[in-house]
Design goal:
Elements lengths: L9 H13 L3 H13 L6 H13 L3 H13 L6 H13 L3 H13 L6 H13 L3 H13 L6 H13 L3 H13 L6 H13 L3 H13 L6 H13 L3 H13 L6 H10 L6 H14 L6 H13 L3 H13 L6 H13 L3 H14 L5 H13 L3 H13 L6 H13 L3 H10 L2 H4 L3 H13 L3 H13 L6 H13 L3 H13 L6 H13 L3 H13 L6 H13 L3 H13 L6 H13 L3 H13 L6 H13 L3 H13 L6 H13 L3 H9 L5 H13 L3 H13 L6 H13 L3 H13 L6 H11 L5 H12 L8 H11 L7 H15 L10 H4 L7 H11 L3 H13 L12 H13 L5 H7 L3 H4 L4 H5 L2
Helix pairs in contact: 1-2, 1-3, 2-3, 3-4, 3-5, 4-5, 5-6, 5-7, 7-8, 7-9, 8-9, 9-10, 9-11, 10-11, 11-12, 11-13, 12-13, 13-14, 13-15, 15-16, 15-17, 16-17, 17-18, 17-19, 18-19, 19-20, 19-21, 20-21, 21-22, 21-23, 22-23, 23-24, 23-26, 24-26, 26-27, 26-28, 27-28, 28-29, 28-30, 29-30, ...
């Protein structure tokens, strides 16, 4: 045209510019606009508006605003279309404040907004969830003489739906019908979308059918909206049927339709197979997958644990030149963090930054949570600090995740420090952060601190919610403070906060542990009366308690009742009952339950096999245990060190030491493993082999503990190799190892041997004097038995050893319900001995010492008063004890507070 000498005019240029914009060649249109002036053709308002509109739709706002300003400089007056395009572009870019300024600016310029301008603002307000403001704008529009059109009402209806105000949306829909305004597919789509987003899928389907009955042909947008709703509601089969119907009606699906169906499949088994079909189909139709398509594929693979496949799709999208967005990265990072692959997740974060993808707060919180789940708290803190340098502000999730991580890692002081750094403004109404810290304090046993924090929280005006109460109730129950937990439960109800199933489960669990079945029953029925049915966790708690009390029949009946009530048992349910059978030595029933578990479609986990292996070992069915161990490997379940140790112990207990040593050589041991094999060898009389293992243990860097030494010392003692036993006792003392109940038992056992008591006396003060331990009932039995045998060993000499032993181990109150009086035939012993034994069981060490000394010094023990008040008997004991105060061997011990010596039950001591 130009070559022929016909220069294009403004109209020609305008048509060309419009064509470029319609085909997406916006920058070519922009260049053509610049050439107009170079060719002496002044651009008019239409040309400017066309390019500005195209730039705004592409979100190239800087160039669009420059052109808008250029119009004024070149005396081209912007009109309502110019302003409307700029306002729409700013709204799309999320800068609504600037859009409002332009709206006010056009009013100042006396350029009246038209229905399109108002609809742009209505749409922006509705998408921000500000439906009430949009409603107000509609009335402003009417007052200014601008009649809303169907699009105006559709946008407002959509706004109501997005804000969850379905009642207002339905009311507006009905008013349009009554006003005679003809509804179109967009009107229906707004309400269908609202129903879908508010989980009212049946009403959405019903409205879709109504639309068709009224002769409105559903568009691809209508189908896609309903497809998405059906998928989100978990009705994937219905969604697939709707997709097929759409194809049969000749409506070609677009990328959004495919994305909806693929995204909807993400939480279902068999995802990969079905989703891959749709992906192939869309490619075959010439529809290019976009970032949303691949993100959905990756998401589905991650949800089904197919991380390798997810990585393949990630690589495929990169190869196809589709850059992943922040959502794609976040999905993949979250999956990696859940399986503990924090290094790979960190590499993804670094890749994001290198590629120019700006990580958002979700990205950092995801990796932060991954570090915390893996217990990598130093890395978590480093990332937390780095967030600030990247210009991100920590939100309540950031604080909660890190505090929770510190709590679960036992670093409660670090959690408290972080909590104190949060400003009151940041903490305002952040009940979730308080709840997390409360849970952490309770988990670490700091229940008093948790209660203080709870009270501070209430004082600050932060209202606790059900999660807060659940945290503190759970902590109190775990600490055995069930009555305090009940008080919080009552306070919770008084505040109008309804307990949920978690609350009741915590309380039921707490009272089950304490064996208070009356309270358990009370809370169980209270829960039922509130319309809260027991869930699988409730039944599991009750079954576990019954199993631990060896009430296996009742536990089995409860299991059947759970199924009858329609509550599907889970793996924990089966494991609990199997464990109960094993505890009751009913291993065959446990195995039958395993077969039932498999028949019902439940796959056993590592705990299932551990329970069975342990049960078989305890029942001396070691071959069965080995069989289950091999099945674990076949099913891809990695046995833990605990499983290995259980089986190793089973082999040792069965006397199969050769097999045990072979098994030991083929595993990666820990200290417990070494203790088990050493104990097995000692019991089997292979003491030299045990010593070799002990030396190997030290060579490999494993540190022997008190159990290790006790095992070897006991082995030497059994073989009467007292010298070697004392040698290891010296080693134990040199390493500052804390003695325990078993160590005390071994000391007592030494008293019945031909042992050098002076050497033992020298050893005891240095090794045990600074430590606290506990003597169990059986140790007390051995001690009492040794006291009565005066002929074998000097009674007073033994008493002196026992003074050191009892003084150093700070023996706690013992279980007096153990029928030792019958096993030792205490009634046949002299009254003084019987009395001494009972006092020993009730934590009165001094009386034992005094009475032992009296028994050794007097030819005939004094007759214990058989009558009189408890007070008279107490006076008698102390009068005899006072006679011994001058004895230097017991003077230091006598100086201990008398109150501690009187803390026993006199009724039990005297048999009255």
């Amino acid at each position: 045209m130009i070559k022929l000498g016909h220069p294009p005019d403004a109209i020609t240029y305008g048509l060309l510019i419009k064509g470029f914009c319609r085909t997406g060649k916006i920058f070519a249109a922009h260049e053509l606009l610049k050439k107009m002036e170079q060719r002496n053709c002044k651009p008019n308002v239409v040309a400017y508006n066309t390019v500005i509109d195209g730039l705004c739709k592409e979100r190239v706002m800087n160039e669009a605003l420059e052109l808008f300003e250029e119009m004024s400089r070149k005396n081209v007056s912007p009109d309502v279309v110019s302003y409307s395009s700029i306002i729409q572009g700013l709204c799309i870019s999320g800068d609504r404040k600037k859009a409002a300024k332009f709206f006010n600016g056009m009013m100042e310029q006396r350029i009246m907004p038209n229905v399109i301008t108002y609809n742009i603002l209505l749409d922006a307000l509705c998408k921000e969830g500000r439906a009430a403001e949009a409603h107000g704008l509609l009335y402003v529009m009417i007052r200014r003489g601008e009649e809303p059109n169907k699009d105006s009402y559709n946008k407002l209806m959509d706004g109501y739906c997005l804000s969850g105000k379905m009642g207002d949306a339905v009311k507006l829909f009905g008013s349009l019908v009554s006003k005679g305004i003809e509804l179109d597919v967009f009107s229906y789509n707004a309400l269908i979308n609202g129903y879908c987003k508010n989980s009212r899928i049946d009403e959405a389907v019903e409205l879709f059918e109504e639309m068709r009955h009224k002769g409105l042909m559903p568009t691809i947008a209508n189908y896609t909206t309903l497809l998405d709703g059906l998928c989100e509601a978990g009705r994937v089969e219905a969604a697939q049927a709707l997709f097929d119907e759409m194809l049969n009606k000749g409506i070609s699906p677009d990328v959004i339709s495919y994305n909806s169906i693929i995204h909807g499949l993400r939480n279902f088994s068999g995802f990969l197979k079905e989703a891959t079909k749709f992906l192939k189909d869309m490619k075959d139709r010439g529809i290019s997958p976009n970032v949303k398509t691949y993100s959905s594929m990756i998401h589905g693979c991650c949800n089904s644990g197919q991380l390798q496949e997810a990585s393949k799709f990630f690589g495929e999208m990169m190869d196809r030149g589709i850059p992943p967005d922040v959502v794609t990265f976040n999905i993949l990072m979250n999956a990696l963090c859940k399986v503990g692959k924090t290094k790979e997740a960190r590499r993804l974060l670094e890749m994001m930054i290198q590629r120019g993808n700006e990580p958002d707060i979700i990205t950092y919180n995801t990796l932060l949570n991954g570090y915390c789940l893996a217990g990598q708290m130093d890395s978590a803190q480093e990332l937390f600090d780095k967030m600030v340098t990247r210009g991100l502000h920590h939100d309540d999730i950031s604080y909660t995740v890190l505090i929770n991580g510190y709590c679960k890692s036992g670093r409660i002081d670090d959690a408290m420090k972080l909590f104190k750094k949060i400003t009151p403004k940041e903490l305002k109404c952040k009940v979730i952060t308080h709840s997390s810290l409360l849970g952490g304090l309770c988990h670490c046993g700091k229940v008093e601190s948790a209660q203080t924090l709870f009270n501070d929280m209430v004082d600050q005006g932060i209202s606790p919610n059900v999660a807060t109460y659940n945290s503190i109730i759970h902590g109190l129950c775990n600490s055995g403070l069930w009555s305090d937990a009940t008080k919080f439960f009552i306070d919770m109800v008084d505040r109008g906060i309804s307990p949920n199933i978690i609350t009741y489960n915590h309380l039921i669990h707490g009272y089950c542990i304490s064996g208070q079945w009356k309270e358990v029953t009370g809370f169980f029925f209270a829960m039922m009366e509130k319309g809260i049915p027991p869930n699988v966790t409730t039944f599991n708690i009750l079954m576990d308690a019954l199993c631990k009390e060896r009430k296996i029949r009742e536990a089995h009946l409860l299991f059947i009742q759970m199924i009858r009530r329609g509550e599907e048992p889970n793996t924990v349910s089966y494991n609990t009952l199997m464990d109960g059978y094993c505890l009751a030595s009913q291993v065959d029933n446990a195995v039958k339950l395993l077969h039932s578990m498999l028949a019902n479609g439940h796959l056993p986990d590592a705990i299932s096999y551990n329970v069975l292996i342990s049960g078989c070992c305890k029942s001396r069915k070691v071959d069965d245990a080995l069989s289950f161990f091999h099945k674990m490997h076949q099913k891809g379940l990695k046995p833990t060190i605990c499983v290995h140790n259980t089986l190793l112990n089973g082999l040792c207990e069965a006397g199969r030491l050769e097999a045990a040593q072979t098994f030991f050589n083929n595993m990666v041991p820990d200290v417990v493993t070494y203790n088990i094999i050493i104990n097995g060898l000692c019991k089997g009389g292979q003491l030299q082999d045990a010593i070799k293992i002990f030396l190997e243990m030290e060579e490999k860097g494993y540190v022997p503990n008190t159990v290790t030494f006790n095992t070897i010392i006991h082995g030497f003692c059994q073989k009467n190799e007292i010298h070697n036993a004392l040698k290891f006792l010296h080693k134990m003392a040199e390493r500052d190892l804390i003695p325990d109940a078993h160590t005390a038992s071994i000391m007592i056992e030494f008293l019945s041997k031909d042992v050098n008591h002076q050497e033992l006396m020298k050893l005891l003060p240095t090794s045990f004097h600074q430590h606290e331990g506990k003597i169990d009932v059986m140790s007390a039995s051995s001690l009492a038995s040794s006291l009565k045998d005066e002929e074998t060993c000097g009674f007073l000499e033994k008493a002196n050893v026992l003074i050191l032993l009892l003084y150093s181990t700070s023996m706690h109150t013992l279980d007096c319900s153990y029928p030792l009086d019958k096993s030792l035939n205490l009634e046949a012993q002299d009254p003084l001995f019987s009395w001494s034994f009972y006092i020993l069981l009730n934590q009165v060490r001094l009386n034992l010492i005094y009475l032992a000394a009296i028994a050794d010094s007097e030819p005939q023990p004094p007759t214990m008063p058989g009558s009189g008040s408890l007070q008279e008997r107490e006076v008698y004991i102390w009068s005899r004890a006072d006679d011994m105060v001058k004895d230097p061997s017991i003077h230091a011990v006598y100086s201990l507070p008398r109150k501690a010596a009187r803390s026993f039950h006199w009724a039990k001591c005297t048999g009255t």
